Amino acid sequence: MAQTSTTQPGAAPPQREVKVAVSVLDPFVIKRADGSFGGFSVELWEEIARRNNYRTVYVEKSDAGAEIDAVDRGEAEVAIGPVTVTAERADRVEFSPPTLSSGLQMMVATCKASALDGLWRALLDPAVLVLICLMVATALAAAVVIWLLERQSNPEFAHKAPKGIAEGGWWASVTMLTIGYGDRVPRTGLGRSFTVVWMVIGMLLVAAVTATYTSNLTVRRLTTNVESPDDLRDHSVVSVTGSSAAAYLTDKGISFRGVASPSQMIDAVRDGSSEVAVYERPVLARATRKSDGNLALAGAQFTHDYDAIAIAKGSDLRAPLDRTLLRIYEDGTYDQVFRSWFQI
Questions:
Q1: Which residues does residue 306 pair with via DSSP β-bridges, in sequence order?
Q2: Is 288 exposed, middle or buried (0-12, 13-18, 19+ CB in 10 A)?
């Protein structure tokens, strides 16, 4: 399918017609309702074409691989979009200076629950519950010990077990939490020695519970805690079939669900059918910017590559395209186009 770009009224007659292969992938190439194309790569190419007075005929393809095939076979002279430079492709086509530094990153869904719900969920975390149970059990043991040590000579601790242990529990609790009301104070030497030991144990238990709960509350904002590709093996992963991300996951032996498009991948993470998306950082960054806060990037970018304009071997377009692209870098036009699509 081909589409011709329009020439502004009053402009000089086009020097030549250039067939440009594109494949739809937001935000690089976007197909509008009227059939025209937009996006970062298209906007950058249109600036190159304007400066060289080219008339563009867009040839739509299914993906970047099909774009390279089109240039290699002579169906198009140029391919734009997220065309990653690889050694295999460099044997078939030529490449311009880099148009975008890219690489793979991960994206997860964020929790949209209320603040109170977040507090409750953090409290119910298994690690927090285990520490709380340990703290209660230890306090109960301390209550029994202090009652056994004080019951004979301290009237503040009842002689009979049920009431005496209950009073010991009160003492253990206020001592552990450093409240220390002073209504029950050990009087025997062994009782006071045990009190010192219990104060140290109590402070450590309270510190452990507080630290674990606080850490869990912070992490709970992300429904999936992933920081590096090594964490992917423990989560359900989604990516786009045939993409560089899919190739990376396959090479690393990481199981994933393949979908047909980035939009399907993003929807899978948003609706919870998959926990982590792995794809090109610019696409994921734009998705998080356009979301209502329910998506977030996870970890750092873990591969590094770059995209460029693919040009047919021996084409006389190579020299003017390289010069124009370098001028676009130098005069700040590239930065303006980049910020309009990828600033987050």
A1: 101
A2: middle
Count CB atoms within 10 A of the CB of residue 182: 7
- Virtual torsion, Cα 141, 145, 148, 151, nearest 10 deg: -100
Distance, CA of 111 to CA of 113 (rounded, Å): 6
Helix (H) or strand (E) holding 203: helix 189-219
The Cα 183–Cα 139 span in angstroms is 18
Specify burial of residue 266 (Cβ count, 10 A radius: 0-12, 13-18, 19+): buried
Q: What pairing do the DSSP bridges indicate for beta strands 237-240 and 257-259?
A: parallel
Helix, strand, coil % over all residues of the chain, rounded to 5: 50, 20, 35
Q: Is the pTM of this model over 0.85?
A: no
Element (H, E) at 69: helix 64-73
Q: Find how far residue 255's CA is from the centre of its chain.
A: 18
Could you give the domains of the chain?
2-102+305-342 (3.40.190.10), 115-219 (1.10.287.70), 225-298 (3.40.190.10)
Parallel, antiparallel, or unpaired: how do β-strands 30-31 and 37-38 relate?
antiparallel
Contact 122, 218 (CB under 8 A): no
Planar angle of CA 332, 306, 327, nearest 5 degrees: 25
What length is written for the chain? 344
pLDDT in tens, the chain (344 residues): 555 554 444 555 667 899 999 998 878 899 999 999 999 999 999 999 999 999 999 999 988 889 999 999 999 999 998 888 989 999 999 999 999 988 899 999 886 544 555 566 667 778 888 888 998 999 999 989 998 998 888 888 887 888 888 988 888 888 888 776 667 788 888 988 998 998 999 899 889 888 887 776 665 554 456 788 988 988 899 998 878 889 899 999 999 999 988 889 999 999 889 989 999 888 898 888 888 778 889 888 898 888 999 999 999 999 999 999 999 999 999 999 998 887 65
Cα radius of gyration rounded to whole Å, the chain = 32
Single-letter residue type at 264: Q
